Amino acid sequence: MKYFMLALVFLAAVSFAHLGEEVEEHEECYGDSCFVHESVDYNIIAAEAGLGLLVASSVLSVAAGKRLKRLHRKAIFVFMAGVIIAATGFIAVNTISANYLSATGGPVHWHADYEIWICGERMELQESEGLENKVGTSAFHHHNDDRIHVEGVVMKLEDVSLGRFFEATGGSLTNEYMKIALADDSAVEARNGDLCNGAPGRLRLFIDGEENFDFDKFILAPYSTVPPGNFINITFGD
User: Fold this and answer.
1) Which of 34, 80, 106, 159 is the most exposed place for a label (fewest CB within 10 A)?
2) pTM to 2 decimals?
3) Rounded Cα–Cα distance for residues 37 and 102 (Å)
């Protein structure tokens, strides 16, 4: 019984730790927006609380050793099983609730291609590094592929606007100003009226070949392939 309970705790720890990572992956916030329901925080708390109770029960059981009667061992086992069932059930209900309340009805994987030009020169955004191979958040990022990736549960459609993508990748975008993080780890800014090739320049946004004036408020089309996903062209020039 003792070794069985230890194995149960170990398996629960692995399971809850993995679940916590998955939950954190969807809890991506930047600016004043998040890609998850607020209850996801409680999922993590439930997992950590359940794991704590399991570890405490196991330690007490091992410490007591042979002094525990058979009935006591059964009671501890039932308690530990109940903790696992309760924590798992709570997390499942909260996750389903978040998906139901989201604007997308659950996780999505959308794409949009983009090009950014300043004074006739094409800009290369900051390069991704490491095992994750992405720039931005796990829910809103690029992979050095000139493509915007939307992955996860979208609570509000405003969370997948063009302005949010710029924020997620270390930049900013309005109808008058643009800042982007470049591949060489520097940053470049452009503001309407700044000189470009000796003349005042201005920002222009084209969506699928047509000029658009939404800029930061433009919401990406909900498609996984391009087309019909958007092709976005942002230029600053004279």
Assistant:
1) 106
2) 0.62
3) 8
- What's the pLDDT at 206? 97
pLDDT tens across 144-169, in order? 889 999 988 887 888 889 999 999 88
Q: How far is CA 137 from the centre of its chain?
A: 5
Ordered DSSP codes for 75-117: HHHHHHHHHHHHHHHHHHHHHHHHHHHSTTSSEEEEEEEEEEE
The residue behind tokens 């099983």 is: 81
Give per-residue pLDDT as tens, 47-76. 778 787 878 777 777 777 666 677 777 777
The residues facing 232 across adjacent strands are 114, 207
- Residue 128, SS3? coil
How many angstroms separate the CA atoms of 132 and 135, rounded?
9
Those residues whose C-beta lies under 8 Å from the C-beta of residue 102, and which sit 6 or more positions away, are 37, 153, 154, 155
Q: Is the peptide bond before 200 cis (omega within 30 degrees of 0)?
A: no
Strand order in the sheet with 177-181: 172-173, 177-181, 187-191
